[in-house]
């Protein structure tokens, strides 16, 4: 039984694709000349192509559109083509001069959308796809193109997971989180390379977000979180275009907390305990914040010659963060090359290289106990009556109040936390038109990403003091090999009925390697982490390797009848090495129909409705977040000391899990596309409902199994919602134009089933809060729901206090007897908030007046709640507090919600849950383009200057620093449940930018 | 013109790959092909011991609960975690966070032991050598179950390897009375096969197994066997490398424990950690807030002596000086030099503090975390007192029993090298009841804050007395029908209803 499966036909062998094309020509050569013109203006078309059909012989038209080509056989046929024009074929016969006039290709004017393994005309799309343009991506300087998607596409929510931290990872959710413990990140596909990292925003031509199952099922087991298709810029035939852009930004923290000053702090402390006021009056936020700076440049060359097109670009991004000692710089080089070896045979290469160097500070720490507080959290907590240094020159610490932590200045300046990442990606493709109807494409890509994180905690800090400094170096390396091979067949099989069939297979192998070394006990702090051997105590080193393979077959069938009736079927079968023994393969089908009503006779000539399409789709997609080897039982090496010596020890850490499979999301989508007034207004609306089954869920096991939890397929989750996008060209004049894009989307998330349908409590509070639960997973409720007591205000004098209420004296906190049993106990904890917004939206306006352009972009979120651990900590007594405590309850100030000053346990209660709704002026920019006449005199083709501001203005009631907040949601198991939390995150920033673009 | 031949040949992707999607992990140990020699077996056995030296067990969660539960230690700073206060105040419920941590950890230890015991069957080598190693796993399993059964009574008993969760997710409880014979059987196996004198005290030896058997029998009230086992240890004292160490203080000095004779078994920490392994907090929990005496910083005043314990302890007793700190030092002198203050200057817990762990933790991290302590789970003095107590029950009034107590007291008279007259030898000829009272109290003082007292209170059923109004730590709500047993974690009962009902009162 054990060896059985090896003999089965499970072996998938990827066969060699080997194409040989032999073209043999016998020639009796003569010259044919002529002129290629445009039928519209009858002007010559420089760069237009002419070639002999079924051969590699051809030529390009010169500056005036004239061409010369040598023709051999009498029955040769000349093919004339040019981008944007219809192709024309003319038999040569005996002619020696052939003039041809090409008609503009109206089809090509129809927007083309990149979908998996191909493109589709927008009018033929049956799935739900949002497009984001290059202009939107580069509206303001950003390190990550992911971030530029915020507010741009309906149903796509984007947030960094650490405020304005330079280089903070960005979290994208397409149509809500479809998982609880598995990754919710969308699959990123760059120029066909699945699982790639994002290029710089300036190098991106367009981004398409594939949202419904019809669109994503072609990516099968990786499709359920949506797919982000990125197309980088390519060269166009014609003379070289050189573009240079540069911008400089100044940043400042966009909000600070109102904290007590030294005198207020001393008075506050003295109101409930003894306190000796310190000698200083320090505003720690002022100490650690500074003006940040971004400098962002790009230089690109693009163009094309006869059969070759190229795009080469270099970008440089440098940022000094708004918190001292934090910053990043990043270099990116992109090269895209395409060559037509013959008119039928095209090869190309996309290359991407980036190097990023991030100097970090410690923030969002998972615990803030002794010596462990992050820079931001400690700037809020640290007492204002102390200075940076003691009299003897050492750094001040919080001792003797509360947990002893370093002051924020020391934490920021003394800790070293550097990450250097280098990524390279090379993706080669070859495309061959086998017959008129059949096209073959093969790609071969390699990506390699190395990252080194160096960390040093010097002896000047509490955490390093007794151990005389601790240094560590962590290296990770990710490499991926991918080949995709597919055939596309397209033919008009019946009159006006076009069949497109795609079929292919792919193989991907990923490899993760890591190594870690650390030591302690240094004589000096000057070595940083660069000399681990100089330590005296060597910590447990670590290294590891994991490999995964993904083998897939995929196919898609489109049938379009008269451009009216559209049909799409998609399926992918994925086999993954990390799937369990009994479920190595999964199949993910989807289907969609579309009806272009506006093409029907009764609407064809309608003046108002220029486009009307109905769409419906249903399909299954997967989430394969099963780590390599995680379905195998294993012994792990654990740390053990015997006789004071570290000794080998192993322990069972996982059980065999032979039946674990991927998560499957079943999504239905109903959409309508409406174009009005010659498509001056276009509206897209979608309703969807996704049910995710077989959730990959870390099910808690009975303690007596010796294993805490096991990944199992339990539970169901529902996401449903609607999206609306409106693009309107409000005003199109010669001098003045105004266009508006508006999108809004709502997603409701609900747990349908859990393991045994039992509540599951989650604790996300910082470790030193000593909380045991802060969120709950409960059937019928959204993921991430906050869980705790309901705060009912302050106990007033003479008031009877509920038995079990933690405080009994007047001025104390009062909690609600939720279950009404006459006492307060853990049974009274309930859901006290929902972090999921009711809707999110973006509202963009572009104006041009002559050479001036203006962009105003609002973005917002409504109805999501935030549990603020920062404010909870600041209200707990043993640290600085917000000015809220000035309104604390006293026998003479009773009309207040702020309890009497005291040191309190940090308890998860509704007192610290706030409305996180906001509307934000994300961007406003004004640009001026120099007059073309002046520009051309300078030998340039375009010059534009602009100034802009980001996050200039925000409307919110949120009392924390910023409603765009996240806390520790960087790992798969936390990213879906840790929503709407705020603790010691890097502050968000307001940015002013000035820049220019020059095109040669 | 010559015919012209264009021959284009292009091949794409001369690439061939076969995969059956089988995972072939490198750098990962699979249990099925692990046990190839006795070193492998020892590593599996060590998995059990490593999990004893874990934050969720001896490092923090288990020991703080045991320490607080008795009448010797109380909560110092009442803003500490509620679960700790509940254990101390007899107000536990089934969501207690300490139990939630150490209950599963106990079974992690047991699972590791079961893995090793199963693995021993596959381990090639001299059977005697294999048995000598696997005997350590039998000891570890007995150690974990002995603690569990005393705290919880009836418990699920797992002595097999779990390959599939379904093997345990409906397993019911085994009666307390049926658990003890299994513990005894494990300890008997351990006693038969363990080395006489292991190289380090972190490895159990024959004497360790016998010492624990004595303790088990004492708990069961089988005094003859308790005496026999204790006597066996005492008789073979030299052979087993055991004995009393000269200076009582050295037992609690991390830099000296490695060379002591007295421990039967130690849980070793060496100031380094890996995640929760090697984490210990006992010094941190028992040290005084605001005390800058030591380079590792102030303690946290979580567990402090019950005031009456301090007040009633004879001031002449050297063990009192070792057990308590009554002063703190603050950096308030000129140039930040240390000045002595009474411990009442710690406003959160203005009282004496436990000194056994905070005073000499060796190299320690911030606040005395991650110390170098080798915590002694049982020491020779306890074996002597067990022998004395058991013998008094079988045959009262023997000089032999007096002698065992006198050895303990004689050592206590060595006040850091200076011989003093307190505590005096036992008055010969005590009645059985007086001797019993005397020896129980001797255990209380000698083994103060060493995780023995709660079990003594429970086995002797003296809760109403010691937590009564005249007890050392009055708790008016102490309920003998409830509080001798602790609640099983509610989450476990929810997953596995066969574990219901919980212990009475929870």
Automatic annotation (TrEMBL), chain A:
Gene3D superfamilies: Carboxypeptidase-like, regulatory domain (2.60.40.1120), TonB-dependent receptor, beta-barrel domain (2.40.170.20), TonB-dependent receptor, plug domain (2.170.130.10). Keywords: Cell outer membrane, Membrane, Receptor, TonB box, Transmembrane, Transmembrane beta strand, Transport. It is found in: Cell outer membrane. Residues 394-952 form the TonB-dependent receptor-like beta-barrel domain. Residues 122-227 form the TonB-dependent receptor plug domain. InterPro entries: Beta-barrel_TonB (IPR000531), Beta-barrel_TonB_sf (IPR036942), CarboxyPept-like_regulatory (IPR008969), Plug_dom (IPR012910), Plug_dom_sf (IPR037066), TonB-dep_OMP_SusC/RagA (IPR023996), TonB-dep_OMP_SusC/RagA_CS (IPR023997), TonB-dep_rcpt-like (IPR039426). It is a multi-pass membrane protein. It comes from the Bacteria. Belongs to the TonB-dependent receptor family. This is TonB-dependent receptor. It comes from Flavobacterium tagetis.
TrEMBL record, chain B:
Residues 341-506 form the RagB/SusD domain. The keyword DNA-binding does not apply. It comes from Flavobacterium tagetis. Residues 85-218 form the SusD-like N-terminal domain. It is found in: Cell outer membrane. The lineage of its organism: Bacteria, Pseudomonadati, Bacteroidota, Flavobacteriia, Flavobacteriales. This is RagB/SusD family nutrient uptake outer membrane protein. SUPFAM superfamilies: TPR-like. InterPro entries: SusD-like_N, SusD_RagB_dom, TPR-like_helical_dom_sf.
């Amino acid at each position: 039984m054990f060896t059985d499966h090896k003999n089965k036909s499970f072996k998938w062998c990827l066969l060699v694709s080997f194409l040989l094309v032999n073209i043999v020509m016998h020639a009796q050569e003569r010259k044919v000349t002529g002129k290629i013109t445009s039928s519209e203006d009858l002007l010559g078309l420089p760069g237009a192509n002419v070639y002999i059909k079924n051969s590699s012989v051809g030529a390009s038209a010169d500056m005036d559109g004239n061409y010369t080509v040598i023709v051999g056989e009498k029955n040769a046929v000349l093919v004339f083509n040019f981008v944007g024009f219809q192709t024309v074929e003319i038999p040569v016969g005996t002619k020696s001069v052939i003039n041809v006039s090409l008609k503009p290709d109206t089809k090509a004017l129809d927007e083309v959308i990149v979908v998996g393994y191909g493109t589709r005309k927008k009018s033929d799309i049956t799935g739900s796809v949002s497009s984001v343009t290059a202009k939107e991506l580069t509206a303001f300087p950003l390190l990550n193109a992911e971030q530029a998607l915020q507010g741009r596409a309906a149903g796509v929510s984007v947030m960094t997971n650490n405020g304005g931290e330079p280089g903070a990872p960005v979290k994208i959710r397409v149509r809500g989180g479809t998982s609880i413990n598995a990754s919710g990140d969308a699959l990123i596909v760059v120029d066909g390379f699945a699982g790639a990292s994002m290029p710089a925003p300036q190098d991106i031509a367009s981004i398409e977000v594939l949202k419904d199952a019809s669109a994503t099922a072609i990516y099968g087991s990786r499709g359920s979180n949506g797919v982000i298709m990125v197309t980088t810029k390519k060269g166009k035939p014609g003379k070289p275009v050189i573009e240079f852009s540069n911008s400089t930004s100044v940043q400042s923290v966009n909000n600070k907390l109102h904290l007590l000053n030294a005198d207020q702090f001393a008075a506050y402390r003295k109101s409930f305990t003894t306190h000796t006021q310190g000698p200083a009056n320090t505003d720690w936020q002022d100490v650690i914040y500074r003006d940040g700076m971004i400098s962002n440049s790009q230089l690109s060359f693009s163009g094309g010659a006869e059969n070759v097109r190229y795009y080469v670009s270099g970008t440089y991004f440098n940022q000094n963060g708004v918190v001292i000692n934090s910053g990043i710089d990043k270099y990116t080089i992109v090269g895209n090359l395409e060559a037509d070896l013959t008119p039928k045979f095209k090869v190309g290469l996309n290359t991407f290289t980036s190097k990023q160097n991030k100097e970090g500070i410690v923030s969002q720490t998972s615990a803030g106990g002794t010596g462990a507080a992050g820079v931001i959290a400690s700037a809020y907590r640290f007492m204002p009556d102390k200075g940076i240094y003691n009299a003897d020159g050492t750094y001040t610490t919080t001792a003797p109040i509360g947990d002893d932590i370093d002051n924020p200045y020391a934490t920021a300046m003394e800790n070293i936390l550097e990450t250097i990442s280098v990524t390279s990606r090379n993706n080669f493709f070859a495309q061959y038109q086998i017959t008129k109807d059949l096209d073959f494409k093969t790609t071969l890509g390699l990506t390699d990403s190395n990252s080194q994180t160096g960390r040093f905690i010097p002896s000047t800090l509490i955490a390093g003091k007794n151990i005389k400094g601790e240094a560590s170096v962590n290296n990770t390396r990710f490499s991926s090999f991918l080949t995709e091979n597919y055939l596309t067949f397209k033919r008009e099989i019946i009159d006006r009925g076009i069949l497109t069939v795609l079929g292919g297979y792919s193989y991907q192998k990923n490899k993760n390697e890591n190594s870690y070394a650390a030591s302690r006990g240094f004589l000096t702090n000057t070595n940083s982490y660069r000399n681990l051997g100089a330590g005296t105590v060597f910590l447990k080193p670590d290294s590891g390797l994991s490999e995964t393979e993904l083998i897939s077959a995929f196919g898609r069938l489109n049938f379009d009848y008269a451009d009216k009736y559209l049909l799409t079927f998609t399926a992918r079968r994925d086999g993954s090495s990390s799937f369990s023994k009994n479920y190595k393969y999964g199949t993910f089908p989807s289907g969609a129909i579309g009806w272009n009503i506006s093409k029907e006779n009764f609407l064809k000539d309608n003046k108002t409705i220029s486009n009307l399409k109905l769409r419906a789709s249903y399909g299954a997609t997967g989430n394969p977040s099963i780590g390599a080897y995680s379905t195998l039982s294993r012994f792990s090496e654990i740390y053990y000391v015997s006789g004071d010596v570290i000794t080998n020890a192993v322990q069972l850490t996982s059980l065999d899990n032979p039946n674990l499979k991927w998560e499957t999301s079943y999504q239905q989508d109903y959409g309508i596309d409406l174009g009005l007034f010659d498509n001056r207004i276009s509206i897209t609306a979608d309703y969807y409902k996704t049910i995710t089954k077989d959730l990959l869920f870390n099910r808690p096991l009975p303690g007596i199994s010796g294993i805490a939890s096991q990944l199992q397929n339990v539970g169901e989750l529902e996401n449903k919602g609607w999206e609306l996008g409106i693009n309107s060209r409000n005003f199109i004049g010669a001098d003045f134009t105004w266009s508006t894009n508006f999108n809004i989307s709502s997603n409701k998330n609900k747990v349908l089933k859990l393991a045994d349908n039992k509540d599951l409590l989650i604790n996300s509070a910082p470790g030193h809060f000593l909380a045991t639960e802060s969120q709950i997973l409960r059937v019928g409720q959204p993921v991430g729901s906050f869980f705790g007591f309901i705060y009912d205000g302050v106990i007033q004098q003479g008031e009877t206090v509920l038995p079990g209420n933690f405080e009994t004296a007047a001025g104390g906190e009062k909690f609600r007897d939720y279950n009404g049993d006459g006492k307060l106990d853990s049974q009274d904890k309930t859901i006290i908030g929902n972090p999921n917004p009711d809707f999110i939206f973006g509202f963009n306006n572009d104006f041009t007046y002559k050479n001036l352009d203006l962009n105003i972009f609002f973005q917002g979120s409504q109805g999501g709640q935030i549990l603020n651990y920062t404010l909870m900590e600041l209200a707990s007594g043993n640290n600085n507090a917000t000015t809220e405590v000035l309104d604390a309850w006293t026998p003479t100030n009773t009309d207040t919600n702020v309890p009497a000053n005291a040191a309190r346990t940090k308890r998860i209660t509704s007192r610290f849950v706030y409305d996180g709704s906001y509307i934000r002026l994300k961007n406003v920019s004004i640009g001026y383009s120099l007059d073309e006449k002046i520009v051309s005199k300078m030998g340039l083709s375009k010059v534009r200057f602009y100034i802009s501001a980001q996050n200039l203005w925000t409307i919110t009631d949120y009392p924390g620093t910023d409603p765009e907040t996240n806390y520790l949601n960087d790992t798969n198991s936390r990213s879906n449940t840790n929503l709407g939390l705020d603790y010691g995150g890097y502050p968000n920033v307001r940015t002013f930018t000035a820049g220019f673009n020059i095109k040669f | 013109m010559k015919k012209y031949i264009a021959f284009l040949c292009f091949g794409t992707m001369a690439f061939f790959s076969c995969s059956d999607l089988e995972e072939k992990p490198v750098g990962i140990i699979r249990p099925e092909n692990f046990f190839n020699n006795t070193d492998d077996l020892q590593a599996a056995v060590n998995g059990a011991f490593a999990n004893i030296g874990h934050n969720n067990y001896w490092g923090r969660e288990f020991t703080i609960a045991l320490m607080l539960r008795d009448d010797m230690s109380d909560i110092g700073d009442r803003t500490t975690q509620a679960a700790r206060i509940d254990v101390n105040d007899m107000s536990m419920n089934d969501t207690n966070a300490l139990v939630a941590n150490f209950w599963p950890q106990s079974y992690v230890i047991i699972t590791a032991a079961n893995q090793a015991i199963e693995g021993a069957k596959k381990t090639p080598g001299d059977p005697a050598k294999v048995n000598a190693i696997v005997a350590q796993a039998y000891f570890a399993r007995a150690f974990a179950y002995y603690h569990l059964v005393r705290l919880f009574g009836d418990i699920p008993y797992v002595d097999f390897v779990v390959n599939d969760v379904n093997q345990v997710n409906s397993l019911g409880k085994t009666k307390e009375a049926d658990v003890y014979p299994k513990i005894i059987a494990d300890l008997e196996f351990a006693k038969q096969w363990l080395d006489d004198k292991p190289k380090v005290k972190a490895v159990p030896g024959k004497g360790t197994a016998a010492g624990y058997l004595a303790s088990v029998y004492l708990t069961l009230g089988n005094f003859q066997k308790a005496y026999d086992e204790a006597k066996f240890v005492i008789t073979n004292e030299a052979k087993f490398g055991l004995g009393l160490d000269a200076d009582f203080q050295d037992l609690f000095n991390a830099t000296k424990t490695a060379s002591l004779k007295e421990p039967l078994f130690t849980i070793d920490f060496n100031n380094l950690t890996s995640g929760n392994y090697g984490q210990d907090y006992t010094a941190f929990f028992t040290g005084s807030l605001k005390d800058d005496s030591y380079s590792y910083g102030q303690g946290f005043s979580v567990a402090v002596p019950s005031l009456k314990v301090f007040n009633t302890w004879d001031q002449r007793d050297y063990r009192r000086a070792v057990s308590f700190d009554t002063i703190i030092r603050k950096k308030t002198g000129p140039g930040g030099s240390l000045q002595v203050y009474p411990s009442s200057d710690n406003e959160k817990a203005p009282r004496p503090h436990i000194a056994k762990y905070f005073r000499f933790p060796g190299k320690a991290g911030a606040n005395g975390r991650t110390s170098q302590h080798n915590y002694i789970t049982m020491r020779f003095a306890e074996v002597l007192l067990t022998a004395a107590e058991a013998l008094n029950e079988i045959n009262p009034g023997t000089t032999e029993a007096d002698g065992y107590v006198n050895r303990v007291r004689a050592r206590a008279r060595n006040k850091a090298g200076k011989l003093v007259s307190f505590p005096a030898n036992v008055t010969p000829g005590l009645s059985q009841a007086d001797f019993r009272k005397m020896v129980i109290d001797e255990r209380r003082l000698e083994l103060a804050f060493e995780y023995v007292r709660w079990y003594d209170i429970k086995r002797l059923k003296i809760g109403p007395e010691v937590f009564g109004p005249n007890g050392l730590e009055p708790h008016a709500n102490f309920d003998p029908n409830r509080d001798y047993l602790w609640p099983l974690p509610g989450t476990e009962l929810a997953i596995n209803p066969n574990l219901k009902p919980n212990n009475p009162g929870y």
